[in-house]
Amino acid sequence: MNESNEKIINDTSKKKGDGKFLRGVLITLTCGAIAGGTFAGSFYLYNTKLKTFIEQQEDSGLQTATSTSSKKTLIKNNDVSGVVKNTMPSIVAITNTSEKKVSSFFSSEDRYQTQKSVGSGIIVKEDGDKLYIVTNNHVIDGSTKLTVKFCDNETAEASIRGNVAKNDLAVITVKLSSLPKRTKNKIKVATFGKSSEIKVGESAIAIGNALGYGQSVTTGIISAVDREVTTSDTNNTQKYTNKLIQTDAAINPGNSGGALLNAKGELIGINSAKYSSSAVEGMGFAIPIDTAATLINDMIKNGTRDNSYKDSEPSYKRRYRSYDDDNGYGNPGDDDSDDEFDGSDDGNDYDGSEYGY
Questions:
Q1: Which has the higher per-residue pLDDT, 205 or 331?
Q2: Is 301 helix (H, G, I), strand (E, B) or coil?
Q3: 103 labelled catalytic
Q4: pLDDT grade, residue 67 (50/70/90)?
Q5: Which of 58, 113, 145, 288 is the most exposed place for a label (fewest CB within 10 A)?
Q6: CATH number for the segment(s) 7-30+43-86+191-289
Q7: Fold match between 7-30+43-86+191-289 and 91-186?
Q8: What is the topology classification, in CATH, of domain 91-186?
Q9: Predicted confidence band at 276 (pLDDT cuts at 50, 70, 90)?
Q10: Known catalytic residue: 13?
Q11: Is 327 helix (H, G, I), strand (E, B) or coil?
């Protein structure tokens, strides 16, 4: 059984209170692993802290990938069917086929095992024979083959146009000539909103390929904006402080790269991760579209490729550390490269002793 990708973030916001603060909680990358084309759900229960990371930096710029004309459908009486109907043709499901090196006890030769994972994407531009789709870098990472499924269930192979690992963003392309006319007539380019204009408490809609079952919709509110977190790459060589959108709209494995929408159906964020802990509920995170826009446009225009991209080995890996009741995560005197805490209470008042997903 394959496992879903996961990562840890450290919330840098501070809060006062009594009791012991544990540093960091489990966050699940919302890209799910599948076996034989079917999602294989994974359950984790351990007294460890799993640590890989969200990689994103703040950026902004002119949105040339924005569709300027779109039917505006507002949410009324919590009915989002109109918004969903108008937006669903912009959302795709992505299957990543990759080869994983497997060590053999009986042979010194390298062996490779085919594995699949699922995610989501958003159509952001049509240009000539190319259809441009934005997703998360961790959705396409390590791929030997990418397959995109559209709103009418038509599938096509995709290629990577660009990726920026530290921002967890990637753009892939599909040849429009490879699609039948009925699919071309149904799909549409997403309309960009402005994440700088969203307010805490306003409605939010998340659409994505949850659990690899196909597109699904969840609703909630914007729980926080500019949620500042400190992250690092998987090699622990660089650290980033990023601002993400927090929502309580359910975000599940397979939702990575999917859309976070406002009440008008405008794209305000790219779903990326969620907290996963027995003590935490309803904490999903999305990359603000204002941050992503310049990078998306650069990848479309220049085909920017991140040097950290590796064709055969996924960059997100799991790292475990033991939990000690007296000292928290890690043991006294450990010189563990995974340790990033400065010894101060960081406000994450969760027991964290058992993580289940």
A1: 205
A2: helix
A3: no
A4: very low
A5: 113
A6: 2.40.10.10
A7: yes
A8: Thrombin, subunit H (2.40.10)
A9: low
A10: no
A11: coil
